[in-house]
């Protein structure tokens, strides 16, 4: 019985000393960067439709950067002329935004918007003043025009005019 108590006491002493040694050491901290939210991508990694859109409509303009927003499933592309493009994960254009003082070019406007919307913009002399085109969740379009008064034009998916919103 004494031998058993001695063995138990010795084990407790060893375990206690081991615990003291462990607690005296610096804690080991493991930091995880977490899920990737965004990251740079090579232009060849953009969806094929996005690559074709850029090659067709901006063949003379270089790509400055391309970034993938993993959580949103979007690709952001900045061109050398300052235009910012956003594509969904299938390569469909979601948004095009011109830098201050510039407008979205006619080729891009015609490539993004339905003919009905382009004709209305042309009739009202808004071509050359389009600052931004955004595809809406319902399939329609919002077009920001920098004219005497900044306005936003809403179109449905077929290009039919729906409303004007003054900023």
Radius of gyration: 29 Å
SS element count, helices: 4
Termini separation comes to 90 Å
- What is the helical fraction, as a range of percent? 25-40%
Order of helices and strands: HEHEEEEHHEEEE
Major sheet strand order? 1-2-3-4-5-6-7-8-9
Mean of residue pLDDT?
Answer: 81
Structural class: alpha+beta
Unreliable sequence segments: 1-24, 29-37
Q: Give the strand content.
A: 25-35%
Strand count, sense and closure of the main sheet? Answer: 9 strands, antiparallel
Number of E-state strands: 9
Write down the overall geometry. Answer: globular
Textual characterization of the structure:
- The N and C termini lie far apart (90 Å).
- The protein has a 9-stranded antiparallel sheet with strand order 1-2-3-4-5-6-7-8-9.
- It has helices at residues 2-24, 48-57, 106-112, 115-123; strands spanning 38-40, 63-69, 74-79, 84-88, 93-97, 130-135, 141-145, 151-155, 161-166.
- A hairpin with a 4-residue loop joins strand 4 (84-88) and strand 5 (93-97).
- It has 4 helices and 9 strands.
- Helices cover 29% and strands 29% of the residues.
- The longest helix is centred in the N-terminal third of the chain and has 23 residues, at 2-24.
- The chain has 167 residues and is α+β, with helices and mostly antiparallel strands.
- The chain is globular, with a radius of gyration of 29 Å.
- 18% of the residues are buried.
